[in-house]
Amino acid sequence: MDNFMQAAIEQARLGMAEGGIPIGSVLVHEGKIIGAGHNRRVQQGSAILHGEMDALEQAGRLPASVYRESVLYTTLSPCSMCSGAILLYGIPKVIIGENKTFMGEEALLRSRGVNLEVLQDPTCINLMDEFITRNPELWNEDIGE
Amino acid sequence: MDNFMQAAIEQARLGMAEGGIPIGSVLVHEGKIIGAGHNRRVQQGSAILHGEMDALEQAGRLPASVYRESVLYTTLSPCSMCSGAILLYGIPKVIIGENKTFMGEEALLRSRGVNLEVLQDPTCINLMDEFITRNPELWNEDIGE
C-alpha cells in the first residue's frame, strides 16, 4: 500500500482510538506530508472538522501555489464540504480510500477537473462498515442525514 | 436592515477589529441566532474558518433536522468550501450580503435547490472593497488564488 494512504489510515485509527469517527486524511506536497488529520466531531464537538478539513487545518495557511502542487489522501470519498474545500484551494489530485460505504461529490470534483483515484481499499471499507453498524446515528449526523 | 444580516455585519466588523478578513455569518433557527462567526484566517492561522464555517462551528453539533429548518446569513457570497458545507447539512436558505466583490458557488447552490437571496448591501460591499484594496495578497490567499 501507498505510504501516504497508510498514513491516512493511521489517522483514521487514531480517531477511532479517541472514540471518534474513523476517517483520516493527509495533504502531501513534493513527496512530504504537510498536514495530517482525522474527523474530530466527537472529540471536539466539531461540525466542520471532517478528516480532510482537519488535514487542511493542520497544514496551516498556505499560498495557492502549494495547494496546486499537492495531493490529498483521504480514507473515504469526500463529502460536499470537503469537496468544496478541495475546489476552493485548487487541489488537483485526490486519492480516495473507498466510496463503497459513502459516495461523496466525486462527480462534481471530476467535472471541475480534479483527478480522482479510488482504491476501494478493504481496510478503509472495514473501518467504516464496522463504525456505521455500531454508530448509525453518529454517522448520520456527520453526513447531515 | 434585517437584524440577522446586521448581526452578520457586526461579526465582520469584529473580525476586522481583530486584524482579520471582514466576513461574518450567523446561523438562524426558529428566529434565533444559534451560531455566529467570522473569518479567522489571520487570528487563528486557519485555512478553514471562513465566516460561514465559523458560524457552523460555533453552533456546534446539531441533528440534520435543525439545519434543514435554518437560514444562514453571510456578508459575502459563499465560496466553494462554505457552499459545500451548506449542501452537506441541507441548509435550505442563504441570505447573502453581496456578490459584487466575490461571486461564490451560487449557481451550484441554486442547482441543488438552495434558496438564495442577494441583498447587494452597500455596507457589506464597502467592507470588502476597502479590505481587498488594502490587503490583496491576504484576500487571494483566502480564496485560493
Automatic annotation (TrEMBL), chains A, B:
The keyword Cytoplasm applies. It is found in: Cytoplasm. Keywords: Cytoplasm, Hydrolase, Metal-binding, Zinc. Its main location: cytoplasm. Residues 1-116 form the CMP/dCMP-type deaminase domain. Pathway: Pyrimidine metabolism. GO terms for cellular component: cytoplasm. PANTHER family: CYTOSINE DEAMINASE, CYTOSINE DEAMINASE FAMILY MEMBER. This is Nucleoside deaminase. It comes from Bowmanella dokdonensis.
